[in-house]
Queue: 2 jobs
Job 1
Amino acid sequence: MDNKGFFGDWGGAYIPEVLHQTFEELKKEYAKARQDPSFWQEYLHIMRTYSCRPTPLTHAKNLSDHFGGAQIYIKREDLNHTGAHKANNVMGQGLLVQRMGKKRVIAETGAGQHGMATATMAAKFGFDCTIYMGEVDVMRQRPNVFWMEKMGATVVPVKDGSRTLKDAINEAFRDWVTNIDSTHYVFGTACGPAPFPEMVSWFQSIISQEAIEQIQEYHGKLPARIYACVGGGSNAMGAFTHFLDTDTELVGVEAGGHGIETGQHAARLCGKDATPGVAQGYKTMFLQDDDGQMLETHSVAAGLDYVGVSPILADLWEKKRVRFEAATDKEVMAALDLTMKKEGIIPALESSHAFVQAFKEAPTLSSDEAIIINMSGRGDKDIFTIAHAFDDPSWKEFIIARGKEYSSNS
């Protein structure tokens, strides 16, 4: 990152004047933390004692045998506290909030995992907490909303626009502008104005810091490829960072939705529908029309339907260091089903996108090679969406029965 927050042509900090002082304070505290070894040690301590790190690297032997190619390893971020990689970032930002002396945090969330992690961090550190979440995502991620509220967070359904992640981000920025003295915006992904992309990636890099040691211990050498789903890009940057200077191929998997050719997707870097633009404080590839208006997106996974992508990933894509592919909703459900049946592991719908591409490519590699799939989260949060997608009759009966029960008691 250069001194203006750019990664090549991407990034920057396009912010209103009212936020300049707040961003200067944040950049100053972040720079001090980067230069202070005791900060990282404090961060590692809380992640080990509170968030159950290091997360395991699991050899998926049954899947490896099934495909008959590379040895498949799964980096188990689902076993991180709150069930996803999101805790890595929020705990780090929580330590920065303490240093800045602020008492309130706000966040945006799509799949609910970042909101869940932020609410958890706020409870741990004693901060007031408000979470902005698109109304559509509130409905399809109701279990996470329930837990956020039970931990004391205020969840605000955003009813503007498409009522999904991009609209939640807009609303969170409005809040921040109004409450800059008391409030820190815990940005959830490696997007937004500098220093957020680099800062979030730094905290998430704990994933690849662990994985690069684990794979060499278990397999004896570095993996041929690493696969990670890509919404904004935080779990992908976490999985890729410590492998950037190696020969390992890095593969990001975006949401193909109903198929890129249909226009109902959220593929920015592997399709042809995205163009360079500036929005939400930074420059990247956005799904937008010729007038710069953001397009509607679609994904079965609530955490992948964002219109933009990390400026760091845009730079790595432009430099051809990361290859990008897309997985359709149909492929995602098939990969999820196979993983559950073969390994007894339930990936989140977001993570399942990475499994799709890994399964396509594993048979093309030899059995003495390894690949890593970054399982960014677990699928418990997706039970309503998954059961609906599988058209499970017993689940329908259960929901209908509970609905009747609630109606009779009201």
Job 2
Amino acid sequence: MKQQLLFDLDDTLIYCNRYFFEVIDQFADSLKTWFNGYSAVTDSAIRDKQMEFDLALIDKSGFKSEHFPRSFLNTYQHFCAITGRDSSKQEENFLWDIGISVYQHDTEPYPNMEQTLTQLASEGHELHLYTGGEPKIQQRKIDQMELGRFFESRIYIRQLKNYDALEGILQSGSFDRTQTWMIGNSIRTDVVPALTAGIHAIHMQAQEEWHYNIIPIDLEPKGAFLRLQQLLDIPHAIKQFVSR
């Protein structure tokens, strides 16, 4: 039976988190060097404060590219304030540059991305792509992976990726909720909105997950709720559920 499959992009079809983690490592190492001798500026304190600023910015206005480097500057300025160390424009420029560099890497697919999408399309399923972020940045990734081959015009980019955004997509299209699936790594932006909207959900479990994506699930699924670890498992899992 034909199903309508909404795929997340970052850390579902392509790598994303690991580039952010690498840049955060570089950021933390820089601050530890600059604030050497200040007992309050520990590795864990740096990472916790950066995450706090980053999440606050996202909660306020969604996924914007400026939020990540801005969280670096806010963290740096916070530690300058509590230690009394003078800030430096040169250091601020350096932090902004490494923060924004996370959006400039080449796009790399998850293992078996193309094989999985090809199999699902050949089995007659309708593939949709639903991703959060700035349109220009997300479209560059989509173009680099040539994902238009699979999704055609069924691509939705939203700066705020939440229940309201998903519900808007479902209401604007011809979706049968009993045959619609959301497939993604984020419990916050993929799984919970899908379960709230009454569609099936597949949680693709990442090896390293961003803290923002992890929230409790306090909903009773109306349909399927599966947890998988690799893309190749998706076609069989859907087939098993549909054929029950």
